[in-house]
Structure formats: structure tokens, C-alpha cells
Design goal:
This protein is mainly alpha-helical. Helices cover about 65% and strands about 0% of the residues. It has a two-stranded antiparallel ribbon. The mean pLDDT is about 90.
Length: about 200
């Protein structure tokens, strides 16, 4: 198994948001600012990494009949820890992300990687897979949120880039998430066809 390919597939070929279209709910809901997108991406990456480590380590002792419930309990444990840490150390981000932090438990990326990869592979490939998928998801969230924040608020990481009367308010509203994601997916598909 080539660890470099395992790592890069989550960033490019099998990017959770741009290629597999997983994690759409937080991608459309919390990407109104780069801070939110980055915070959600880091939280998902942390939970993904921790759950992949535990699932891979316990893969031989979890009975097949209770595999999915066991994975959900493992993931829920790490989401609860992440929720408490964010509440304690980043209260503004915690408030901004709101209900989407506990919803990481049912994120298809995390459960899918636990089921399809970590439960079938040893520890090191599972860690590499989690890091690749997590970083790919985080980068995708940051790109979507950067487009939305710059066009919708005229800022980037809170720094004013455009005059206050220029931004298109729709970009920081829910329809703006669909518009930004659709345009980015279209650009990625066009780029992929050119490189193919």
C-alpha cells in the first residue's frame, strides 16, 4: 500500500466535498466565514483521526453484527470531547458553529471512513487516510468559505478587502452556499476534463 497515494487521494482524487459530495450539510451551513470553515474542518479532522485510530486498533475485537453501532459510539465519544473542548477554549467559534458540532457524529465522511477503511486496515494506513480525508475536507471548506466571505462580506479572515457597498449579501445567505459550491464544482469538473 502506497501511503503517499492514501494521503493525497483525500485531498484531490477523492476529496470528500468536491468529489464524493459528502459533508454537504456543514459545508453549506457554516461556510459563511473562513474562521467557521477552518474551525469545522479542524474539528472534523480531529474526530476522523481519533475515530480511525480506535476503530483500526479494535477492528479484530468488534463483532461484525455490532460494527456500525460500535463505530457510532466511538465517533460520538470523540465528538463529545471535541464539543467540550471547543466550548471551553473557543467559545466564539463554538457559538458560531452551533448545532453542527454535535452533528459531526452522523457525518458520512467519518462513518464512511471507519466502515470502509479503518475497519479493514492497520493503524498507520488508517491514520494516513484520516489525515488525507480531513485535510481535503478542511481545504474544501476553506475554499468555499473564502469565496462566500469575500463576495458576501468583502472580508477575508475578518480583514476588509472590498469596499462595504460592493459585496453581494446573497453569498453569506443559504442560497449563496449552493451558488458558491455549484460554481466551484463546475470549475473543478472543467479543470479535470482539461487535465484528462
Amino acid at each position: 500500500m502506497n501511503l503517499k497515494n492514501e494521503f493525497t487521494k483525500g485531498i484531490v482524487r477523492e476529496n470528500p466535498l468536491f468529489r464524493l459530495l459528502l459533508g454537504m450539510c456543514p459545508a453549506l451551513a457554516v461556510t459563511t466565514s473562513v474562521n467557521n470553515g477552518l474551525g469545522m474542518g479542524v474539528a472534523v479532522t480531529g474526530v476522523l483521526l481519533a475515530s480511525n485510530i480506535v476503530v483500526s486498533s479494535m477492528r479484530k475485537i468488534i463483532p461484525p453484527g455490532v460494527r456500525i453501532p460500535a463505530f457510532i459510539v466511538i465517533i460520538a465519544t470523540f465528538v463529545t470531547i471535541t464539543d467540550m473542548l471547543m466550548h471551553a477554549f473557543t467559545p466564539a467559534l463554538y457559538t458560531s458553529l452551533g448545532i453542527f458540532i454535535p452533528l459531526i457524529v452522523v457525518n458520512c465522511i467519518i462513518l464512511g471512513r471507519a466502515e470502509s477503511f479503518a475497519s479493514r486496515n492497520t493503524l498507520l494506513p488508517s491514520v494516513i487516510d484520516a489525515l488525507g480525508m480531513g485535510i481535503g475536507f478542511t481545504l474544501a471548506l476553506v475554499v468555499v468559505s473564502a469565496v462566500r466571505e469575500v463576495l458576501g462580506a468583502g472580508t477575508f479572515f475578518g480583514l476588509q478587502l472590498l469596499p462595504e457597498n460592493i459585496p453581494a449579501l446573497i453569498m453569506i445567505l443559504p442560497p449563496g452556499g449552493f451558488i458558491a459550491l455549484g460554481c466551484l464544482l463546475g470549475l473543478m469538473n472543467k479543470f479535470q476534463k482539461k487535465t484528462a
